[in-house]
Amino acid sequence: MGxxxxxxxxxxxxxxxxxxxxxxxxxxxxxxALKQMxxxxxxxxxxxxxxxxxxxxxxxxTLYAMPMKVNPAHSKTATSWNSSPIS
Length: 87
Known about the structure:
Blueprint: H1 18-23, H2 28-36, H3 39-49, H4 61-65, E1 69-70, E2 78-79
Antiparallel strand pairs: 1-2
């Protein structure tokens, strides 16, 4: 079996607390995505990862991300193809 990334830090004391989680590298990828990457680059990164949806069909996660666009009024706000805010 490969490396277990999800549970890699499970035994770190206090990992459930925000400050400990951040100290151990938590949210680094989110910070990179929000500050350094374009929406297109994020979609490409997800494509490369091979991430799949949680539904029974196992569709690639990018299938859900492709119809998204960036709202020009709020450059950090993603909206779906029908312009409804994504929560």
